[in-house]
């Protein structure tokens, strides 16, 4: 009954998501062999989203089921295929313009390069973190996370996550035409000194993003430096920069550099790690780079042109990437890795239902074989068909 009292001013929304996707692959993430057949798989993400908000409190619960079609028996007799919790957080207003958001939540900042929700992946990404937020003329977020095993008699962590301790500070300021973000991330990865002692090795990522809008073009630049200690014990000296220009007609051109290791330099780790970003968004939809792979490798130079078109219910996108290695693969290997073409279309069949499809081709160079194996002349293809339905049950 409190929901209907005007003075409470509470809002409750219950929504869902149904997203089956069929993918066709021959050379996805890694080069195919000449005799390799095309594979076809179907995955599905199903979500139930509940959001409750008042003036001083916001809570969100997202239940999620992710599966391959055919992975579960038709007659289910066990609990191995349980629904997971993708998000479960509460944000409490502590003072004017100051709040605490704690629980399992997505972290999305700027263009998703360092922190993103990886929305393309059916499982997506969320963190167990406490987030202190100041949001006024400037925005300042302080995030703190600490992980340990369930055994309270030790302080060990050897779980599935990429860090044991994480702290970050994100600053954002917007003017009429310009935006500036600054990020400091301290990432602590555990290692065992002995069977009875565990320590962290910390790396730091520092940098930010600046955007500026003109009458007919929008400009953006990223610069991030990584330092500190790699989990291997070596020092880190790595960097990432991006320059991008976007026209109002839908054309975007840019270049990105992610530093990498070279075969003749092993005194330090020179490979930049984009950590918790939405990497599928950046360096080609075939996911050859930084999507569960290519970490601590030769890095990447990516020169790209993108075109995105939308009118009424129809959408089209075409992306072209030219890839070279940032580090030296070997004494004789060329730096050229390949050229990728990504094409996609979408159509809104109903207000809450979108049908989309895409096809990608990788024209790989010989040097790609040294990194990925396979046959660069075999023909590398990947495509998908996806239905995304997002109904709102209660609002």
From TrEMBL:
Domain of life: Bacteria
SUPFAM superfamilies (alphabetical): Porins
Protein name: Alginate export domain-containing protein
């Amino acid at each position: 009954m409190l929901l209907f009292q005007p003075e409470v001013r509470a809002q409750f929304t219950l929504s869902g998501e149904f997203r089956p996707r069929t993918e066709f692959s021959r050379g996805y993430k890694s080069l195919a062999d000449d005799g390799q057949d095309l594979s076809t798989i179907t995955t599905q993400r199903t979500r139930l989203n509940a959001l409750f908000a008042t003036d001083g409190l916001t809570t969100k619960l997202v239940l999620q089921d992710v599966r391959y079609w055919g992975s579960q028996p038709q007659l289910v007799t066990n609990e191995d295929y349980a629904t997971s919790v993708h998000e479960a957080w509460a944000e409490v207003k502590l003072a004017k313009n100051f709040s605490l958001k704690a629980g399992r939540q997505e972290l999305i900042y700027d263009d998703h390069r360092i922190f993103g929700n990886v929305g393309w992946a059916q499982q997506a990404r969320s963190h167990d973190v406490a987030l202190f937020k100041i949001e006024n003329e400037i925005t300042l977020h302080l995030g703190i996370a600490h992980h340990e095993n369930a055994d309270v008699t030790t302080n060990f962590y050897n779980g599935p996550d990429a860090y044991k301790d994480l702290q970050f500070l994100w600053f954002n300021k917007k003017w009429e035409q310009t935006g500036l973000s600054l990020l400091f991330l301290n990432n602590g990865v555990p290692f065992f000194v002995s069977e009875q002692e565990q320590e962290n090795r910390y790396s730091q990522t520092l940098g930010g993003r600046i955007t500026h809008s003109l009458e007919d073009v929008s400009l953006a630049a990223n610069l991030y430096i990584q330092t500190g200690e790699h989990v291997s014990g070596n020092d880190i000296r790595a960097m990432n920069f991006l320059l991008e220009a976007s026209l109002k007609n839908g054309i975007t051109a840019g270049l990105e550099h992610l530093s990498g290791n070279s075969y003749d330099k092993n005194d330090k780790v020179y490979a930049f790690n984009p950590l918790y970003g939405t990497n599928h968004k950046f360096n080609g939809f075939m996911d050859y780079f930084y999507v569960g792979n290519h970490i601590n490798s030769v890095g990447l130079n990516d020169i790209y042109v993108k075109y995105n078109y939308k009118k009424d219910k129809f959408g089209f996108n075409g992306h072209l990437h030219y890839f070279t290695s940032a580090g030296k693969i070997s004494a004789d290997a060329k730096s050229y890795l390949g050229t990728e073409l990504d094409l996609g279309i979408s159509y809104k069949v109903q207000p809450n239902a979108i049908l989309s499809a895409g096809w990608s081709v990788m024209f790989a160079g010989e040097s790609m074989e040294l990194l990925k194996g396979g046959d660069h002349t075999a023909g590398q293809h990947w495509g998908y068909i996806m239905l995304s339905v997002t109904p709102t049950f209660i609002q």
